[in-house]
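User: Sequence in, structure out. Go.
Assistant: Echoing your sequence, followed by the structure tokens.
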Amino acid sequence: MASTEFSVSADRTVKVVTGLVIILFIGITFMPLILPHGDETGKWVTIGTTILIWGTAIFSWMLHPTGYQIEKGRLLIKRPAGERSIVFNEIKEVLMPEDSSMRWSLRLFGSGAFFGYFGKFMNKAFGTMTWYATRLTGFVLVRLKSGETVALTPDDSTFADQLRSAAGLA
């Protein structure tokens, strides 16, 4: 089987939240240049704050999903920090839930719109899930034999069928 790549695109909420947070971080970074920072302690607080907020931004960017790839024997979830690989024989089932069943998902740990939706989430219908998503519609859930559920949001609506076929689940 040839390798097939699938793109992901951010929804409006991700674009707006990411843009506003970056503008806020820029403002926080350059505010000390406008306002006097007083003593030596103020200078170090400013430096520490700048490192913390930009470290958070870089860390979030490194973990956001940039695409998915189905290749021989595995599914790859692409991220700037590296790929997550799921071997086909680990996959129990591939579902395409209704968007309404994914509403009211609770973020346990991760990003809720800053560069995407990724990390640990849960909801009543599907329990705890690991999200690698860029929007809140068009979910594909990959349930693993280990009990983990992985949520993806590919742009291509045929992704689930192609994954099922490649993994021998169709």
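User: And one key feature?
Assistant: Helices lie at 12-34, 40-63, 99-102, 159-166.
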